[in-house]
């Protein structure tokens, strides 16, 4: 009788096959287990050890498997292929010192509805040398035969790779390495103890499946000129899950675009090293790292544009280091409408060195556990922490967060206790609308600077060190939150051993954030500054320079100006800036706009680093006064109204205007 091996685990499959009397042993091959047949490829043909056996068909140098069983395949062929026939299940292919190249189709194909397991034994290489132009050939026979992958797993089929040897899949001459089509499942490894090596090279996607891609173990090296590991169904594919799940394995990805990209990405275990031209881990929807019990992967993002990106990001366990040229972590997806973005950290150890925002959510952010250390960009257009708008919040309830960056876009928790060193300037978190500063009443208001390479330390009043590090870039603002902080203690920030600022415990205000408020100055956005500060007086919105108020007299500064880009639509029901006033002495400006019928509040945002950043969303007058800024700096700004509980951000770009600080 014919052995039919239905199990996924090859060890169990081989053991079962060994009990079947019709199995054959071929001691001349490196593989010494039991099997149903073995095939040897040469450039001129394929030979079978059991020519009278069933379950296969040979046509020149093309081998088709059409029955369940265990088959050993070896040899070399410059124009050969293996196909598991449509609907055939229970197939185990043992690749034993096999080298196949094919220019007319994929070297290995698992056709629709089929199920196969590839067991890697010895050294094996599969190379797809198809002409990429064949995919769009006017010859339908040529176009239909095009697979564009070293291993093609067709719609509704599944493939599992296991073993102890090495398999190199080369798609760098054509398109993909291993590619699963719609509703397919590709599983790499059985568990974290798998010792095989899988090398995948591709000009497009290296290791991909539109349905599900699961990595359980093995040593996996991926190199791609596009995405490395991917599960991204076509737009018209409504059945495929588009999920990448990594449970284990030692994985190295070098990709010109995203290292890992899917609709949903779950990295629950394993060891990942990433060099990406674009994002390290990218999920169109949910990105989850680590397990609920706090265990998880080790991730080293050595190069990326953004390290982690997903509409929601959940960090539950593991540890990771991120180096990014833009945001380190970013909860965002511009393709989603009316979506609530979230970034939640409940466990793990995370280190971020970003040249954009360090940890950014275009919605809410919550930190309830773990240890997170963030260095944001060394410029005032980004913050170490950043959140969204329309009442979005940064909630701290546990764990440790250290955020080192510049004060221009500094954000502090809106809920929970923290300390902050340094004053904050204009700007803040934007995710499509407006935010508001958290309280910084516990700050000393001291200005200081941290240079790259400087030592940083935070100590309590007893001299105990809570945090110490070497600055990886320049900074002038530090936020620190830990469950060890106490309300009756003064904390000191040291830079190169010198005390530069002090702070006491501060509680978040419960308001969503935008910018911090400058120390020693009044509230931005209210058109009111405190008397005696050489600033505008309350109630003087139309004439800021009044005699006898200790301020400049008319004619000693620049007169009121009109907006550089005034709104011209007479029917528009949103604020139109009617006047911009400048103070050259204090490098400040004030905006005045018309009242909008039904407006509950007004908000002001500034466009920085490619994003609308919130200045204030709680304005009840029709004026806004800026903090002290750098002379000559030009800002693109907009004023919006909140009507019937919603912010009107229609035509936000077209009604923006610019202001240049005098």
From TrEMBL:
Biased composition (Gly residues): 511-525
Region Disordered, residue ranges: 507-575
Keywords: Signal
Residues spanning the signal sequence: 1-30
Biased composition (Low complexity): 526-559
Record bears the keyword Signal: yes
Protein name: Fibronectin type-III domain-containing protein
UniProt source species: Ruminococcus albus
């Amino acid at each position: 009788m014919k052995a039919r091996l239905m199990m996924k685990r090859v060890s169990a499959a081989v053991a079962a096959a060994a009990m079947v009397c019709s199995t054959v042993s071929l001691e001349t091959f490196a593989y010494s287990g039991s099997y149903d047949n073995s095939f040897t490829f040469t450039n001129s043909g394929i030979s079978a050890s059991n020519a009278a056996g069933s379950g296969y068909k040979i046509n020149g140098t093309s081998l088709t498997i059409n029955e369940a069983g265990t088959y050993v395949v070896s040899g070399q062929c410059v124009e050969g292929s293996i196909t598991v026939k449509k609907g055939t299940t229970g197939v185990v292919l043992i690749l034993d010192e096999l080298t196949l190249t094919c220019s007319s189709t994929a070297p290995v194909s698992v056709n629709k509805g089929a199920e196969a397991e590839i067991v890697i034994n010895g050294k094996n290489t599969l190379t797809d040398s198809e002409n990429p132009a064949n995919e769009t050939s006017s010859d339908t026979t040529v176009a239909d035969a095009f697979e564009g992958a070293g291993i093609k797993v067709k719609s509704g089929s599944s493939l599992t790779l296991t073993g102890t040897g090495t398999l190199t899949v080369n798609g760098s001459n054509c398109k993909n390495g291993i590619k699963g089509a719609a509703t397919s499942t590709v599983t790499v490894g059985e568990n974290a103890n798998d010792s095989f090596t899988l090398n995948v090279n591709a000009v497009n996607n290296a290791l991909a499946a539109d349905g599900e891609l699961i990595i359980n173990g093995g040593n996996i090296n991926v190199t791609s000129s596009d995405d490395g590991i991917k599960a991204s169904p076509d737009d018209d594919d409504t059945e495929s899950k588009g999920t990448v799940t990594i449970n284990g394995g030692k994985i190295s990805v070098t990709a010109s675009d995203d290292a890992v990209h899917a609709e949903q990405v779950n990295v629950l275990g394993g060891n990942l090293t990433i060099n990406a031209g674009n994002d390290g881990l990218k999920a169109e929807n949910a990105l989850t790292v680590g397990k609920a019990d706090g265990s998880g992967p080790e991730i080293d993002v050595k190069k990326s544009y953004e390290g982690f990106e997903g509409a929601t990001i959940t960090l539950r366990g593991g540890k990771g280091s991120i180096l990014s040229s833009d945001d380190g972590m970013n909860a965002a997806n511009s393709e989603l409408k009316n979506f609530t973005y979230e970034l939640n950290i409940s466990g793990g150890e995370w280190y971020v060195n970003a040249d954009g925002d360090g940890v950014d959510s275009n919605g809410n952010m919550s930190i309830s556990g773990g240890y997170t250390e963030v260095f944001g960009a060394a410029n005032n257009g980004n913050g170490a922490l950043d959140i969204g708008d329309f009442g979005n919040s940064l909630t701290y309830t546990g764990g440790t967060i250290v955020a080192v960056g510049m004060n221009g876009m500094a954000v502090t928790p809106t809920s929970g206790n923290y300390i902050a060193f340094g004053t904050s300037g204009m700007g803040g978190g934007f995710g499509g609308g407006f935010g508001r500063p958290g309280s910084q009443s516990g700050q000393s208001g001291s200005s200081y600077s941290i240079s790259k390479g400087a030592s940083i330390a935070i100590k309590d009043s007893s001299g105990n060190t809570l945090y110490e590090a070497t600055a990886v870039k320049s900074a002038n603002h530090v936020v620190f939150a830990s469950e060890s902080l106490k309300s009756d203690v003064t904390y000191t920030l040291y830079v190169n051993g010198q005390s530069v600022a002090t702070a006491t415990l501060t509680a978040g205000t419960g308001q969503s954030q935008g910018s911090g408020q400058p120390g020693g100055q009044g509230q931005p956005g209210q058109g009111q500054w405190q008397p005696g500060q050489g600033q505008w007086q309350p109630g003087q919105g139309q004439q800021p320079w009044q005699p006898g108020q200790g301020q400049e007299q008319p004619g000693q500064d620049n007169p009121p100006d009109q907006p550089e880009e005034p709104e011209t639509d007479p029917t528009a029901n949103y604020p139109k800036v009617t006047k911009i006033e400048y103070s050259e002495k204090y490098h400040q400006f004030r905006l005045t706009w018309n009242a909008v019928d039904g407006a509950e509040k007004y908000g002001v945002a500034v466009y920085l680093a490619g994003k609308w950043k919130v200045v204030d969303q709680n304005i009840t007058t029709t004026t806004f006064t800026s903090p002290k800024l750098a002379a000559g700096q030009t800002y693109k700004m907009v004023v919006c109204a909140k009507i019937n509980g919603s912010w009107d951000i229609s035509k936000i770009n077209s009604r923006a205007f610019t202001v240049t600080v005098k």
